[in-house]
Design a protein that fits this description.
mainly alpha; two-stranded parallel ribbon; 7 helices
């Protein structure tokens, strides 16, 4: 039976690859460390949440009364109970399969590939990960 939503859909996921460090960044790892520590400092995270409208994908304790943005405040109060969150693949696809899977499915946009080739590429990704 297909999944059916009875309320409006909303997306919530954690599709992200994190910080990518180039070979040059590896040579300057102390500077990269400073950047990462700064970006994850309480001051920057607070600013991102209160002023940037970034809704955390993790379970966090937030006092909605302290949020300046009405839209962001609603995302923590009435919004979760008024929507159905869509099932996102990043919550179910194993991490070691994620990037190879993106590459395999990208052939869908290349001329000359059909569903059979795309499915074969996806199957190969999962076989290689086992």
């Amino acid at each position: 039976m297909p999944l059916r939503y009875t309320r409006p859909n909303a997306f919530r996921g954690s599709t992200s690859a994190g910080w990518w460090i180039s070979p040059n960044g590896k040579k300057k790892i102390d500077t990269v460390k400073q950047l990462i520590q700064y970006m994850y400092s309480p001051e920057v995270l607070d600013h991102m949440a209160t002023d940037g409208g970034v809704v955390m994908a993790t379970n966090t304790t937030v006092d909605p009364a302290e949020l300046g943005s009405p839209l962001l405040r609603q995302s923590y109060t009435t919004f979760p109970e008024s929507v159905d969150f869509a099932v996102m693949p990043d919550l179910y696809v194993p991490a070691d399969v994620g990037n190879p899977l993106y590459r395999a499915t990208s052939i869908a946009y290349t001329k000359g590939n059909d569903a059979k080739k795309i499915c074969a590429a996806v199957d190969e990704v999962y076989r290689a990960a086992q």
